[in-house]
Write a structure and sequence with these properties.
This protein is of the alpha/beta class. The chain folds into three domains: 84 residues, Winged helix-like DNA-binding domain superfamily/Winged helix DNA-binding domain (Arc Repressor Mutant, subunit A, Orthogonal Bundle), CATH 1.10.10; 96 residues, Periplasmic binding protein-like II (D-Maltodextrin-Binding Protein, domain 2), CATH 3.40.190.10; 99 residues, D-Maltodextrin-Binding Protein, domain 2 (3-Layer(aba) Sandwich). Strand 1 and strand 2 form a beta hairpin. Helix 1 crosses helix 2, helix 1 crosses helix 4 and helix 2 packs across helix 3. The longest helix has 28 residues. The two termini are 58 Å apart. This is LysR family transcriptional regulator.
Length: 291
């Protein structure tokens, strides 16, 4: 049954007149009368009694009125929610991020985004590069931070270049150098992320033709920093990870320099307005807060 019929019935009862209901709905009295007759025919019993004194609800009409009002209210709420979603003012975003972005970018990005879109809920998923790729492929997240190149099944928005640097204990021999050529790293004990998460380190060393001696592996970026501080080895890490780092680490750039490209990745199909708004918010925040 058409919502228009329910609306005609509810307005007629509210205003007590076919004429006033027609005016309220931008229709004619004869049209409203016809709609109500159709509604009564569909139900199989009268809803209104009409007399010179006006319009009265039948017993059946009294029982059905609250249900019709509830249906119209629910439809109004549904349409409002759909409008908000179209305008990126409602919905849920499932967001994936690796550690350095989650710690150093996301707090500011989320603050600015929620100031503009307070009714959009963000669900955060923290993982490594391999997690981002898997979550995107399996539809577990709507958007994720990745490093390029990314899997071909996603579209990407490049965001920033993040240099890779060597971190050393302060008494390490390589601290004497202002910048470290990759060949100086031969024979050093490395602390690295797990294989699936160490794309950047292995890329930097592979390009230099170096096969590193990996002494320890971990899934935790900050465990690497702590282990280097204790003299257990050296590591190649993104500079963003070291933002605000403690002074008991030595940091040296590679020469020639090597960087990772941080990007946003989204599925090709099914653009979600709130997600698109979030992506715009990320790029705006980075323009205002250059790294």
């Amino acid at each position: 049954m058409s919502l228009r019929k329910y609306q005609a019935f509810v307005e007629t009862v509210r205003l007590g007149s076919l004429t006033r209901a027609a005016q309220s709905l931008g229709s004619t009295q004869s049209r409203i009368s016809h709609i109500l007759s159709d509604l009564e025919e569909e139900f199989g019993f009268p809803l209104l009694s009409r007399s010179r004194s006006g319009i009265q609800l039948t017993q059946a009409g009294k029982l059905l009125l609250p249900r019709m009002q509830a249906i119209l209210q629910e439809d109004s709420a549904l349409q409002a929610l759909a409008r908000d979603i179209r305008q990126a003012d409602a919905g849920t975003i499932r967001l994936g991020a690796f550690t350095s972005v989650a710690v150093h970018w996301l707090p500011g990005i989320i603050r600015d985004f929620q100031a503009r879109h307070p009714r959009v809920e963000l669900k955060l998923f923290n993982g490594d590069y391999a997690d981002m790729e898997r979550w995107l492929e399996e539809g577990e997240i709507d958007v994720g931070f990745v490093t390029l190149p990314a899997p071909g099944a996603v579209r990407t928005i490049p965001l920033a270049q993040d240099p890779l640097v060597v971190i050393l204990p302060r008494d390490h021999r390589l601290c004497a150098l202002e910048a470290i050529p990759p060949e100086e790293l031969r024979g050093e004990d490395f602390i690295s992320l797990l294989q699936d998460s160490a794309h950047d380190t292995h890329r930097a060393l592979d390009e230099a033709g170096i096969s590193p001696h990996i002494k320890f592996t971990t899934k935790d970026d900050y465990a690497i920093l702590a282990m280097v501080e204790q003299g257990l080895g050296i590591a190649i890490v993104p500079q963003l990870l070291l933002k605000g780092h403690r002074e008991d680490l030595a940091v040296r750039p590679l020469t020639p320099g090597v960087s990772r490209t941080i990007a946003l990745a989204l599925p090709h199909e099914g653009e979600i307005p709130a997600v698109e708004a979030f992506c715009r918010s990320v790029t705006a925040w980075l323009r205002e807060n250059p790294q």
